[in-house]
Each structure stands twice: as structure tokens, then as C-alpha cells.
Amino acid sequence: LLTHALFKALLFMCAGGVIHSMGDSQDIRFMGGLSVYMPFTSSSLMVSNFALCGMPFLAGFYSKDFILEMFSMRYVNVFGFFLLFVSTGLTV
């Protein structure tokens, strides 16, 4: 839960930085070429997005894997497993 909060906060900080650098305009049509003009912010945005999706070797992957492992050790019916893996697949 802590990793989710940290990476979500990083996403909001990156979005605020992009909006501020565009002259407080939120029109996405004027935000082209973000990686050229703001490479650090763009990289941070991508890393935090990948971490929230649970990409391997990032913090979100290990926390999501731990939750799935703990849930799979419990006695749960087939519907519970189906619901767990469908919801996990939707977050990727």
C-alpha cells in the first residue's frame, strides 16, 4: 500500500510539473514531445506508471506478487481465484 501511495504521488507531481511548464495549460494537444523537453519528468512518469502496473523488478511487482502469494495459500473456491486473477490482469 505504501509503494502504491508513493508512485501515485510521483505521478501527480509529474503531472503538475508538466502542467506548470506548459504555462498552466491542460490542453493535451500542446504537450507533444514531452520526452525531448522534459526528459527527467518523462522518465519519472514512465517508471512510476510501470511500477503501478506491476512490471517485474520494480517495487509494485513485489508487493503485488506478495499479495497474490498470500491469497493463493488460503483455501478459496474457484470463483475467488478467478476473481483474483482477472482483477490482477486488469491492472496490467
Give structural notes.
This protein is mainly α. It has one domain. 72% of the residues lie in helices and 0% in strands. The chain is built from 5 helices and no strands. It has helices spanning 2-21, 34-37, 39-53, 59-72, 78-90. It is elongated.
Give the % helix: over 70%
Tally of extended strands? Answer: 0
Order of helices and strands: HHHHH
Strand content: under 5%
**Total domain units:** 1
Net shape: elongated
The major beta sheet can be summarized as: none
What's the gyration radius in Å? 17 Å
- The chain-level mean pLDDT equals 84
Low-confidence stretches: none
Total of helices? 5
Spatial gap, N to C terminus: 17 Å
Judged by helices, strands and strand pairing, the structural class is: mainly alpha
Main location: membrane
Catalytic activity: a ubiquinone + NADH + 5 H(+)(in) = a ubiquinol + NAD(+) + 4 H(+)(out)
Subcellular location: Membrane
InterPro entries: ND/Mrp_TM, NU5C-like
